[in-house]
Amino acid sequence: HGLEELNENPNQIGSENVDPNLLLPTVINGAGKAVVGLGFGDIAGVMQHTQKDGWSSGHNAYDWSNDSHSWNSYYTLLTNNKNMIEKAEADNLEFHRGAGLVMKSFLFGLITDLWGDAPYSAALRGNEGAEFFDAVFDDQRSIYEGILLDLETANSLLSKDQGSYFSIQANQDILFGGDVAKWRKFANSLALRYYMRLSVKEPAWAEQGIRKLLSNPQLYPLIIDAADDANMAYVGNTSVDSWPTNTKFDADSQGAYFRIKMGATLVNELQELNDPRLGVWANKIDIPLVLDAGAPDGTDEVIDGERHVAQDIVDAYEDIVGFPVDYDKEYVGLPVAMTFGIAYNLSENLNQGALNLHVSQLNDIYKEANGDLLQARLISAAEVNFIKAEAATKGWVSGGAEGYYNEAIKQSLNAWGVGDAYSTYIAGPAAYTGPEDILMQKWIASWSAAAESWFDYRRTGIPNLQAGAASKRQALPLRFYYHIDEIDNNKENADAAIGKLETTDFKGDDATNNSAWSKMWLLQGTNKPY
Amino acid sequence: LSFVLFLLFSSYVSAQTVTGSVTAAADGMPLPGVTILIKGTTNGTSADFDGNYKIDVPDENSILVFSYLGFETQEISVAGKTTINVLLNEDAQALDEVVVTALGIKREEKSLGYSVENVAAEELTRVAQENVLNSLSGKVAGVTLNNTGGAGSSVSMVIRGAISLSSDNQPLFVVDGVPIANTLNNIGGFGDRNPVDYGNAISDLDPQSIENVSILKGPSAAALYGSRAGNGVVLITTKRAKDKEKMKVSFSSNTVFDVPYRFLDSQSQFANGYFSFSPRSEGGSYILPDVIPAGGNGGPELDKGYYAVQWNSPLDANGVPIPTQLRSYPDNVREFVQTGITTTNSISISNSTEALNYRVGVTALDNTGIIPNSDFKRNSFSLTASSKFSDKLEASTNVNVVHGYADNRPASNRGTNPLQAAYSTPANINLLDVKDYKLPGTDIYNFSDFYENPWFLANEVNNSFSRFRVYGNFALDWKISPSFNIRSSYNLNSFNQTQETKMAPGYLRETNNGTYGIAKTDGLETNIDILASYTKDLGDFDMTLSAGGNLMYQKNTGLINSAASGAGLIVPNLFTVDNIAPATLNYSSYTTERGINSVYALANFGYKDLLYLDVTARNDWSSTLPVDNRSYFYPSASLSFLVSELISIPKVDLLKLRAGWARVGNDTSPYQLGAFFNNNGQWDNAVLYSGQSGLNTPNLEPEEATSQEIGIDLNMFSNRLRFEGTYYTVENRNQIVPNIPIPGSSGYNSVSINAGVLESKGLELSLGFTPIRTENFNWDVNLNYTTNESTILELSDGVDYIEFWSENKSVSRGYIANAATGEDGLVGNIYSPLIKRVTDVNSPYYNYPLIGSGEDAEWLAQEERVKVGNYNPDFVMGLQTTLSYKNLSLNLTFDWRSGGQYMSQTSRYMVEDGYGQQILNNLVNPGISEPGPELKQWVLDNADLLIYGENFLSIGGPPGDGGFAQDLGGSVVYDGIFNAGVVGTHDADGNFILENENLGEVGTAFLPFSVANPWEFGTPHMFDADYVKLREVSLSYDLPSKYLERTAIDNLSVSLYSRNIMLWTKDSEFGIDPERAFQAETSSGNRGTQFKQGIERYNVDPWLVPIGIKIGVTF
């Protein structure tokens, strides 16, 4: 062999041989897992959909620091996406270019929504040489600008008939099966999301954009039907392609599924609304509690599947734990960031993260590895309709808010398989009473994709959530800390971005402005959420 | 003219012929190869195999000069005799002075300008070691050894410190001319958390067949082996038949019993659980809440006569579990491990005739490990033979076939490691109760779904392997003339390895019918060498010129099939690939190739016996580097000056000054230049490809290590005092370092790049003396001392630091030395956060620890990390001593490491989970049971310890010793502790705003002692690595030959020995062997494996007292 041939890599392919179809599912997959990781993970805790009673500090109490959340995996996905776009440009594959721009917008959208200023225009160029390793952080405003520009380009790239695209492999598109029209709707729906994100900080810009998108459905088709939701289904073959709380691969009695409890904030709200989605998301408690007021002291026994306790036991418990016993026969949520959550509601199992017979676990479907409802939800028809409703309250779209609100709820119920209950539900306490309802319902509908409702909360202060006793700070966090790896390696640029953050009263003992309670550009001067 | 012709002619006219034999004066053995010269001429001959010679002398007054390496030269006048038999005396000055150097060339040590260490066979096999490298511990200056455990484990050898940031720093091993890379990359095992060390290449060598180990420490010694020799070379010469020796049969048998005697310091005072209920809180009932194991070891106190429902409580008639007494089982781990037994039997036959010289050896090693059901076996066969076709042509060959295999190698780290499971077992559970885990009619393999059963893991998680290694060479030596010869050889080293994991259902991380995986890996390296040498003697000057070439080729292939993590098998206990569901089958294959072509030349010049100069030059062409950079040249030069030959100094036998300079180039691994994309599995029907997150640099340059060394050798008092000192520096430039972190926003997490300049400096001293040397009694002492320091001088643009490891919140990194920031630039620094403190100097709480609020009333960690230690030793010393009286001898080898630290993840997990004794040791009992002014005053009185110190001491004893009251839904328990400090924040001006004191007053936040571990910090689990080991002790007896005269036995010896006994550790409480403070792990991104130094995670066998016996017989 010549030395030349010996160093030809027989195990991997070079960038010249990468089909964009091979990279597309990698990017979608990573983005989908990120959405679930956030919105079914710690952000579901922040937004009080769920609470944990084991290994809970990041989930319930925002016990975050500069080594809690790294954006490296987002940038790694973006590098793959960049390769896909470049390859698609070289081969003139408009579908892959369009889809690439949508995913680029989605991922950079997440980065800037989560952290604020971030490397954008100078990012992803490490392969061009050492002088490109340390990328400057772009202003958050210009990142949104770039995203919206890319989505506009994507809308036009994806505007042709399905038949006029080349090289689409349906099985490789794990979001839409190669349906170009759906990608186009995804692009525009994302643009709508980001314009509304800017509605408080930059109302004029947001209004112009939203009017543009909503006034011309032919030019800007949107996801308005749950059938078009940008969802990625979990597969369920192995631990890496299964729903994260499955008990097929994690059967530990203190495993992922058992650690998560329904949050009291969400359970109470859903119960007030007679919401049919509660039964989809939550299990009923195993053993309801019954106060046997007349029983002798110390009475504590299970009769016919209900646990009867005497007043003295309840008094002692309430005295210590500081929460009343919840005698609800069906659903009990765990209060926010409570101390000794493991003992809540007279639980006798004092192991952290274990089954609590008197608190609602998540529905059994979340024990499965896959299933119709076990999907990563990137953006939904419900969200688009809620945005329309919100735009209507601002007069940025024709039509009344209530109609869009109702449609949004209908699409959410459809998405969760309880569309039949719509008319009863909307006739009940869930009926539209005012703009605040839109964001309350949007918060509910963001189940398992709660990051979006965190961003809404920051913008609007709705729902008016309070921190719990064990929370690290007595307010909800506003962002992720810049990670120490980026600070260590890209110090000058990171420090400049940190300097631009605006501290709040909840900065606590964070040594610099790099705090989860500091305001990024988007929130500065908005007086929201506090 | 005719007169001149006559003179010329006459010198070739023989006056007479002299014959005779040359033998050693000491033992009468013939001395083949003795040079016999006619004085005043260059005419001469050499003695044959039998020491016989024949020489024609011009006249009867000629004087014959008999010279032989290691013997005193004798001059004898012919004086008309036709037979002259000569007895040569050993030269006391020249004891052991012949050493094997690069390319197997034997040289007089005095002629070398660089440091070479020689270890002879008797040193290697006096105490049987399964791995030849372990025999070097304590005996060689400048060498650091680490091994992962018992027989068959990988052993890491580092010479003169880690000068390479990118590789595992292993030297190149050359066995009889066959290069064998000892890469630490054989960590395998399938299934979730099942890392298994299958041993690196040197573990395949049979120590019984080794004659000599020669260690070429610096690059100057190694300049001729090319790229791979940058970390030094270990030349291993195997045994061969002694010339003209009668047929000899040797047999030896070794048995070692490894008796475990010391275990990690775990607590057996408390049952599992998070809260220490006690009868005080239970109204004196003595019946406590259930302790069904589900986590924590801070539960009720044991051996107090308390009762609770336990995992194995019997049921009453209604099926209700009956409380049983809470007892402790402190000897669980001791009960679990067993005495390891290793037997090694070896037989060899050697013979030497005119036509053929051969040695055949067979060795069988059989090991049963201290972990039940763990084993290792190795059968070795070796053949060495040479034959002279004529006076000028000699062929030789060396063939070794080794079969190493095991039914089960124990896993390390956390997961399937049975020792970890044994240590984790709560003290209230008797491990003997779960020994018979296959209870009839049940499938209960564990006593809870939280704890693994170590017996199950040991017996049902089987990591087997089988590896055939064939290595050897075929060489031709062609002596074209006495001064010119050519040697060519073909060298081969190949292995075929199969490793399999068979896991029965029962492991909690593989809950779907266990798992299965199989990997087949093949490796091949060939080297074709040719070397021509020319020797010329010009009176006072002599010189040897050589030139040669080498073609090296490597190929590795692998084929790997396993079930995806957690996905398991279709049918349990059927271990085939087709029993894995297709969608969950992980499969892959790879091939890598590499070639290096080289030419080289060397020249040795000598002036009298006074001055020696060596010069070498080599050029390599490597396939792994870019076309433009693939050729690299590197020279070396060294000088030896024998002062004692020039001037006579009283009592001095040898005074030598030496100096060397060398440069060695190095390449990189295959396929490190481009951007590549991998198949990363499937998502339903979609195939997921992705690029590497580690960035390659297309225009890599070769590495360049430049070393300099100076040394002095001094022997005095008839060699009863021997001193050697060497000082060296190595500057390693353009190091190709993979996985250097870069900002994630660049799109890549790391880069492989020519990273900078690293400098190592070190000192190696050795001192030997012989206080007693009499006919019957001899006492020898040898001491050696090594110190080395490596500093980063430069890093390339865009690189801020190099990371050696990152665990929890602690990292080991190398930064550039910077006087302004106080950064010392040392390799091996460990950084960790300290406790966050009040920084407002005007605050009365200045320097108080900050405590988290609410439930997290624990010490807060600083955002910044500071240097807290370094994993490298300050120095290492070895001491060997031999006492012999007649046929009895006692040998002792000690090893002392001073300085350096390591972090123990074992300790961290043990304390976190509550079974490490340290959790109790870190509690201080104030003797005050209520919060209030008195308690606060006590805390303030002890402020240096509790507030200002970085001691991580929690206040409040465990229950029974003064824990504070804690309320828990209906029960009060007395196991509360608190951490002294304050809760509060600093405002924008740096003023401290107090929210709450946490100093013992009412309002202080109490935590259960079971959660007292400061998980956020590295320093509570950092230990000093200083230790002293008794590396070897042996007592041996050679049966005097008079008892053997009438038997067929020539020689019989018996010895008793022990080895590797830990005598002292500076941090002695916890019980980790600091020598194992490293982690053998496969790093990401196809970079091979590196031993992470200074961090360990369950790399913790018990300390052992081995007892060995060896019998050797020669017929």
Please describe what this structure looks like.
The complex is a heterodimer of chains A (530) and B (1115). By secondary structure, chain A is mainly alpha-helical. Chain A has helices spanning 3-6, 20-46, 57-60, 72-90, 94-115, 140-157, 180-197, 203-215, 256-259, 264-272, 277-281, 311-321, 381-393, 401-415, 422-427, 435-445, 451-460, 484-489, 491-500; strands spanning 13-14, 50-52, 118-119, 137-138, 230-233, 260-262, 289-291, 300-303, 306-309, 375-379. In chain A, the strands form four sheets. Chain A has a three-stranded mixed β-sheet with strand order 7-9-8. Chain A has a two-stranded antiparallel ribbon with strand order 2-6. In chain A, helix 5 (94-115) packs parallel to helix 7 (180-197), helix 13 (381-393) runs antiparallel to helix 14 and helix 14 (401-415) runs parallel beside helix 16. Chain A is globular, with a radius of gyration of 24 Å. Chain A starts with a helix and ends in a 30-residue tail after the last helix. The model of chain A has no long low-confidence stretch (mean pLDDT 95). With 1115 residues, chain B is mostly beta strands. Chain B is 6% helix and 48% strand. At the A-B interface, helix 1, strand 1, helix 2, helix 4 and strand 3 of A face strand 31, strand 35, strand 36, strand 47 and strand 55 of B. Strand 1 of chain A pairs antiparallel with strand 35 of chain B, so a sheet runs across the interface.
